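Thread: cytidine-5'-monophosphate complex, take 2
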Amino acid sequence: MHCKTKLFSVQIPELAKCSVLMRERSRVEETIYAMQRAGAGSLQVISDFDMTLTRFAHNGKRVPTTHNILDNQLLIDEDCTKKMRELLNTYYPIEIDASRTAEEKLPLMVEWWTKVHELLIQQRIRKDMLAQAVRESSAMLRDGYKVFFDRLTEQQVPLLIFSAGVGDVLEEVIRQNHVFLPNVHIISNYMDFDQTGVLRAFKGQLIHTFNKREGALSHAAGLRALQGRPNVLLLGDSLGDLTMADGVSEHQNILTIGFLNDQVEERKESYINSFDIVLVKDETMDVPNAILRYITSSRDRK
Ligand code: C5P
Ligand code: MG
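Output below.
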């Protein structure tokens, strides 16, 4: 064990950064070893999108979520912008409030998403304007995203992006960053357009931050590409993201990584108690990339 630990710190030095917190380092090590022994063929990655694959902030300014990318005059009028911002100012603090439970937040999140989706539908958003809105936005994936997507593709590891954001916008963000690759699968809130390309509804069951478990059981469990891959690397920025792997039957090893972007001191303890690895104010993919590099390397496999 001692020897392994030494090996570990040499092979994944990124885990020694002071922004990396772990409740139980030995469990993390054992899980990573087990995943490395099983190899890339046994692995799947499940990741949240907003504030997990995308940055939280850049040059001191918040990076927009997929919903916020729609806040563009190409798509919505001033009144709608104002109302959406008011809703964000009301409900986002609730979403990240460390003093409320997920159960307490749940109905309020449904309220937020429902109100915003109704507003968006009233705006008769045009499908053919979405790409331009994404181009004009300051959407930004985390530093190192290219290495992340490329390695998963090279190693034929499926990546499930599981987002409570807007699927059509999410797809456009990854397309414009040239990483909408064949191993990428998406579960999200998709827009339903009428025959003339005007938004008329959102498809399927609403996904918000705290009902990903239901989405996992109804959608992810049926995804063929994920089957027969019992090891899961899960990435998220909300405690609600931890349920994204609930659709994986007969999993063997799960390693969870949580990006702690906001309300750091208030939420640190609960994040450490909930995720295996917590990354504090880290805008990069360096740690997930280092772990993936190790897991998918063939060296020392027994
Ligand atoms: O991809 P992810 O599941 O993280 O997307 C959900 C995020 O989008 C939430 O964390 C929430 O803060 C944000 N959101 C938003 N505007 C809304 C609804 C959700 O920015 N109207
Ligand atoms: Mg998120």
